[in-house]
Amino acid sequence: MAKVWVYADIGPEGPRPSALELLTKARDLADTVEAVALGPGATGAAAALGDYGAKTVYASDDPVFGEYLGQPAAHVLARLVAEHVPNLIMFATTYDSRDVAGRLQATTGSTLMSNATDVLGLDRARTEILGGTKIVDVSLGGPEPRLVLVRPKSFAAEPSGGTANVVPVVAEVPDELLKAHRVERHEEPASGPKLEEAKVVIAGGRGLQDPTNFALLERLAAVIGNAAVGASRAVVDAGWIPYSHQIGQTGKTVKPEVYVAVGISGATQHVVGMKQSKRIVAINKDPDAPILKLADLGVVGDALSFLPRLIEAIEARES
Ligand SMILES: Cc1cc2nc3c(=O)[nH]c(=O)nc-3n(C[C@H](O)[C@H](O)[C@H](O)COP(=O)(O)OP(=O)(O)OC[C@H]3O[C@@H](n4cnc5c(N)ncnc54)[C@H](O)[C@@H]3O)c2cc1C
Predict the structure, then answer these.
(1) 200-318 is classed in which CATH architecture?
(2) Whether pTM exceeds 0.85
(3) Ligand 1 mean position to 208 CA, how many Å?
(4) Whose CA is nearest to atom 23 of ligand 1?
């Protein structure tokens, strides 16, 4: 009987959405779906994990998993793997999970595939290569469990209405693994909907010319409502806006109802993070910009003169 595990990231408000997405997919792959949750809040998260398909949750609330980077979690996970022998473990592509998955692979010698966009079976997964222009199915060799790091939003999370049996895990970690200590945790202050959850995403690129012009995107988001502001890497690297706004291969993946790309050329590394949006609107002064080929609606012109008029028109319609 196939057994699939999900390594569940837990945040202050419970399981991260990615854990629920992976559990939903795991239900298609195996009769036995289980989750491993390590760190403060793990036991409390078990009910939600059960609701999305985990029959068993191996949980430890021990602060050691929050205070240190991946080493303690990878060590304990390796012990659980040896004991319970899952066929496949799915991880979300987060900093913490990537750290744990890499360390686990070094211990087990199994295959670790990153950047998966789908998991097709216990030994098969899908990814995109060459900046998202080609889709390839990859066969996972080597000993079990195969390890797969899955891109966020690859699956839609759907509850199954189940409950989980919680198995407490003892956090026995050798002293030599307590080395990389977290000294500070910084939460980016945010207002409005989260980028990954907003119905509308308005993203700005180098075509905005100046960081202060992001204020135009904020105003547009405010008049539309349930909208968040994203960015290309070019402007994140230039320090115009924090990394938490970056969309693309090395940033976030979004799938809003409407994606508005303002002054963004449409490089493949950007497009992989937004191409699954339901409708794409692009505002670009270059009629040959690649983003316009992808767009359902393209505006060829200067964004800096177009946006104020668009905002005014929406405000006039609302009043
Ligand atoms: C390994 C790797 C990973 C990467 N990861 C990412 C990633 O996650 N996300 C990402 O975005 N990029 C990523 N990149 C970078 C990517 O290749 C591009 O360099 C980047 O997306 C370009 O950003 P941009 O579109 O804002 O800038 P540009 O390519 O400079 O485009 C600016 C656009 O604005 C238009 N424009 C100029 N002025 C105006 C105006 N007044 N009005 C309207 N339009 C105007 C121009 O016509 C142009 O199309 C990655 C690159 C590498 C190598």
Answers:
(1) 3-Layer(aba) Sandwich (3.40)
(2) no
(3) 11
(4) 234
